[in-house]
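Incident log, structure service

09:12 report received: a user says their structure output differs between two submissions of the same chain.
09:20 pulled the input from the user's history:
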Amino acid sequence: MEAEGTSSKRTAAISFSEIVIRPSLTIPKEEQRARPISLLHKAKALCLVSRALATAQKFEARVEISKHSHQSDDRGLHVH
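09:34 re-ran on a clean worker, output below:
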């Protein structure tokens, strides 16, 4: 997970004007890409912290294909 914030000073206080959230997920096969993307967006929508923030948010989900051909669990998903 990577996050980036842009701050601005509009009044006496500094606040975030935008937050970019970049979750990264590694999957074993290209054919499995659709479901992880859907799950990442669902997790963002249900996140209590994200919903509580008044700051504009960008969500840039990334799904990568594993370079290793090793045995893993049934889902084979790895979150970063």
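09:41 both user submissions now match this output. Likely a transient worker issue. Closing.
09:42 reviewer note: The first helix runs from residue 34 to 46. The radius of gyration is 16 Å.
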